[in-house]
Amino acid sequence: MNEFELIKNYFQQLAKKSLCSLNLNDDVFFDKKNRLVISVDTYVEGNHFIDFKKPDLVIKKIIRSSISDLICKGVKPKYYFISGSGNKKSFSKSNLLKISKSLNDEQNKYKIFLSGGDTVFSNKLSFTITSIGFANNIIYRNKAKVNDDIYVSGNLGDSYLGLLVLKKKIKLNSSLNKYFINQYFMPNIQLQLVNHINKFANTAIDISDGLLTDLDKMLNTQQLSYKLHLKDIPISHNLKKVLALKNLPKVNYISRGDDYQVLFTASKGKKSIIKKIASNYGIKLTKIGSILKVDKKPLILDHKNREISIKNKGYFHQF
Predict the structure, then answer these.
(1) DSSP reduced 3-state for 115
(2) Cα–Cα distance between 258 and 242 in angstroms, integer?
(3) pLDDT at position 119 over 60
(4) Would the pTM of this model clear 0.85, i.e. be above it?
(5) What is the pLDDT, as a whole number, of residue 162?
(6) How far is Cα 182 from Cα 161, in angstroms, rounded to an integer?
(7) What gap in Å lies between CA 194 and CA 126, rounded to an integer?
(8) In this structure, are residues 209 and 316 in contact, taking their beta carbons and an 8 Å threshold?
(9) How many domains does the chain have?
(10) 66: domain range?
(11) Residues 32, 138: Cα–Cα separation, whole Å
(12) Three-state SS for 274?
């Protein structure tokens, strides 16, 4: 079963009396009365990261991907808790120094504070991050409207290419290797969007499992469909260069996950304020499609408005 079937069949009923749990169908817990917002994420070696050869970079990746759950809700992260399971090799003195330095770097960059956690011995390396912020309101899932425009922040696909480089499945020059590996480990999350997304977004999610998978999750209890234009989906100059050099199709790189950009919908009347905020604060926000009625088939169109089929829509958690 997938993660949604698991939650629905075994856990949703347990949270029924806790309105703050949002029916276990959102990125966060939100206690509106106390302005408290919490997210929890677990990362396992071999699943969420290949190995622990670069502990300093792995830690940056999991911190950024964790706080992006709050950012896409319009919530500024403030505190985090980190729990880790590992052995003497993974938690050697050398690795612990690197982990500590990376956490300090991320704290300074995002103005967050380590506030607790736990450690346990295990031969399976994993980390669990609890992120906490405070807000009067959040951007929920499942609040899109028919004819909403669909937007995404930043660029998509760089992280996936970085993963291919790390797995030695693609050969590039040293400069491009470094760029894509850094994009994989250090996604450019959109903290500056926190103070503005409430001004225009109807619904939002961060892209962790892939553009199409997360778009489906963002709309999963709504009777809605969508149309996307491949030519409008933003990718970096470096990814464009590689796709041209290797003669690779763009469609295979835009929904493979680990982007941690913000995917949101907004009413058409919000177009000017979105453009103004993007310009004023240097945030790349790109319109990539629109929300349709449920009787319409979900579509991805090429530059000639022809339907494209995508075999891999992203990552699915199966149990």
Answers:
(1) strand
(2) 19
(3) yes
(4) yes
(5) 97
(6) 11
(7) 29
(8) yes
(9) 2
(10) 3-134
(11) 9
(12) helix
